[in-house]
Amino acid sequence: MIKEIAVGIVIAAVIFLALQGVNLLPLLLLGALGYLLYNLSGLKVLNKGFQGQASPSTGRITFADIGGQENAKKEIREALEFVRDSSTARQLGIRPLKGILLVGPPGTGKTLLAKAAAAYTGASFIAAAGSEFVEMYAGVGAQRIRELFHQARELARQNNRKNATIFIDEIDVLGGKRGQHTGHLEYDQTLNQLLVEMDGITASDEFRILLIGATNRVDLLDEALLRPGRFDRIIHVDLPDKDGRLQILRLHTANKPLAADVNLESIARQTFGFSGAHLESLANEAAILAFREREKKLRQEHFLEAIDKVMLGEKMDRQPNEDELRRIAVHEIGHALVSERIRPGSVSTVTIIPRGGALGYVREVPEADSYLQTRRQLEERIQLLVAGSIAEEILFQSRSTGASNDFLEAAQLAKKMVYAGMSELGIVDPDSLPRQLLHKAVAQILQTQEELVRGELQDKVEVICCVSKELLQEEKLSGERLRQLIAGGDKPQPLERAQLA
Fold it and tell me: CA 189, 194, 197, 198 torsion: positive or negative?
């Protein structure tokens, strides 16, 4: 803000002096010289940002400290063997790898893998972020790239090592496709300098430099950066499966006292879609909950509560009124009943305690990690999503806005079915499919599934009323208690429709 005001004052002063007939040429030359000196001094200050430090020999991150990424670790170790055993690689005519690109969602351990790679080869390690290279000053980014590689070599020399590893996180910021920034060529100059530096990494160098980049948007990178000879290996670092999540949980709970009832395998099964960062936060939140309760050990209920907190956020202070709570209870029970019909034993928790942006929710236990979906699975998922609003409609003769997110997800699944050739339209081309025809196909899928759920829940009105009463009293039901109530054992006096309405 101050800079903009100063520029405005200078411009106004120049215009005023020009109107007074003052010769502005000396002033303009003096201003240009000052601006040039300012940029040069700024360049020196900016370049001080890369102060790489070698990790100590003890306490360094190793591949054994990283769980859930066995395939990625295997690929990286194989690539790094050429660096560790350079003499054998040279005899076989193998060119040392210049770059490894780690691609995957945030929080999956790309930075940890880069640090482990440096430890595996005994290399000095220096890290930077892609955003550090792009500035408004022309040439600053390119100068920073040169400085980064220079510091990597100096770091290796200081530590008496022959190898250095450079890690650039979010490399898509500086490695994006050239020509996209028409009014500002700083991005292109920075990328060009990086390409030149990577071409200059040769086997005859005194110090061998390995560049490791990380991104979750590989589609944005320039093709010249991805070609062999620069990034020789592209390694996908995906979300961990159940076994991987179990390994990560064991690593993050190794320093925590666990009670006898803690079942990490059960927790791993309930955290489908969690990254390593999510699981680390889960273990930490469980420990915080135990600390709040002055407990000496972490119990299973602490982990289950932590799953909800990581997924949805902290509990809300604002509470819905009684009428809203009754509607929320019926809505969530509708979801739970259909979930139990689709896959018995799938419900882990039903609650009407507001948390994050959700006024209530049903947490399911995934049966197994799956990467393909059949038509039946998609239809059943749609049935589960619309069940809450159908239950409201049956008991209250109206729906509420609480089902908006459910409807959005259901519509996306129906659209996926159309694009996958699972609708009456058969195989279609998404790009040429008319919008009206797509809307008609999606609406037909949703309407069919709604009718199926409506017929199912109309026969279970008494069960909905029965479970609603206990859920309103307890605010939270376990899956075991829900199934007991559905089966008719020890069930309370059900609420009448009039009481619900």
Answer: negative
CATH 3.40.50.300 is held by the domain 63-236: yes
Q: With bands split at pLDDT 50, 70 and 90, how would you rate the model's confidence at 54?
A: very low
How many whole angstroms separate alpha carbon 154 and alpha carbon 452? 70
71 token code pair: 């395939």
pLDDT at 283: 93
Residue 488, H or E segment: none
The values of phi and psi at residue 147, to 5°, are -65, -35
Helix axis angle, 404-419 to 375-396, nearest 10°: 150
Q: State the residue for tokens 């200059």.
A: 200
pLDDT in tens, 444-497: 999 999 999 999 999 999 999 999 889 999 888 888 899 999 887 555 555 555
On the question of pLDDT at 140 being above 50, the answer is yes
Measure the CA–CA gap between 257 and 254, rounded to whole angstroms. Answer: 8
Beta bridge partners of 102: 214, 235
User: What b/e sequence results for 300-331 when a residue is b if at least 16 CB atoms lie within 10 Å of its CB, and e otherwise?
Assistant: bbbbbbbbbbbbbeeeeeeebeeebbbbbbbb
How many CB atoms within 10 Å of residue 148?
25
At 4, the amino acid letter reads E
* Per-residue pLDDT, 58: 35
- The string over 257-267, giving b where at least 16 C-beta atoms fall within 10 Å of a residue's C-beta and e elsewhere, is ebeeebebeeb
Considering just the CA atoms, what is the radius of gyration of the chain in Å?
Answer: 30
CA distance 233 to 415: 35
Residue with tokens 């395939």: 71
Residue tagged 């990178």 (tokens): 221
Neighbouring residues of 209: CB distance < 8 A, sequence distance ≥ 6: 98, 149, 152, 153, 163, 164, 165, 166, 201
Rounded to the nearest 5°, which phi and psi values hold at 332? -70, -35
What is the C-alpha separation between 390 and 227, in angstroms, rounded? 54
DSSP states of 231-275: S-EEEE-PPP-HHHHHHHHHHHTTTS-B-TT--HHHHHHT-TT--
Whether 307 and 270 have beta carbons less than 8 Å apart is answered as yes
The hierarchical CATH code for the domain 242-312 is 1.10.8.60
CATH 3.40.50.1220 at 322-500, yes or no:
no
Please state, as a whole number, how many other Cβ atoms lie within 10 Å of the Cβ of residue 29. Answer: 10
Q: Which residues are catalytic?
A: 332
Strands 347-351 and 361-364: antiparallel
Taking residues 380-397, report their average pLDDT. 94
Other CB atoms within a 10 A radius of the CB of residue 455 amount to 10
What pLDDT is attached to residue 380?
94
Cα–Cα nearest to 152, from 109, 208, 98, 196: 208
